[in-house]
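Just scan my protein:

. . .
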Amino acid sequence: MAKNKKLSTTELLIENLKLNIGQLSEMIENQGAQAFGDSNLLSLEEIEDYSTEFLELFVQLLQSDYQINKDNSEYKALVTFFNQCSEQIQIRGGTMEEFVSYMHFLQTSLIKGLQDDKSMDMAQYKEVLLMLASMFNDISLQVFKIYLDEKEFTIKAQQEELLQTSTPITEIWDGVLTLPIIGSLDSSRTMVVMEKLLSKIEADRSRMVVIDVTGVITIDSQVAHHLIQMMRAIRLMGATPIITGIRPDIARALTNLNIDLGDVVTRATLSEGLKEAFHHLNIIVSSEG
């Protein structure tokens, strides 16, 4: 007993875990079976494997003079372990709440395993409880941050894909591009569209760009500003813009906003805009039969 009193709280915890690892592992497995046994989130074999791996990683972390330090390799290994558990649960239709429940019963199992340890006095026991709470809270935050970052990356990728597919730029004829705009133009979408459009103009050496705004629901000063920016950029590339599909309500909105499209050619429909582009390039399209 005297020897134990010389040990630090962390050393006492390591000693306790090593002595009771079998009992702790069984306790974790039993609680895991109760939590996930009736679902497809984790099999009993996976719960057993995860329990053993967790205890091994946890002991390694304590032996590395545990601190909440993101640069600690043992700490990173434990975060990676929990992140993989989280991914496994989510892949099978689980939620982050169920993952948090998994972490909770791991923490509870450790605490229950310490309750019968007579080598710790009350002060050391409280210190261990605080350390466990701090560790589990911190790792939960780290895993949740990884989850949010991955979710945000996925959302951005989906938004980018949507932008790419919602603004198709088509070479309808040699030197003639069409760009139908559907929805509204905000700053981020304008930048994506403009980058694609200017690259296409350069690659195809396009001379005419027909922008159809039939699908634009409303036009306010910001949308009009983005359209004007696009017209200027097209001209800087040496091409001529044509706007089609300006409905009466859109025309009234532009007038009320005192928006001057300058000398940009406008036509009522996309087909009329294409005819204007062909005429400008001296292209004659005729039908036979």
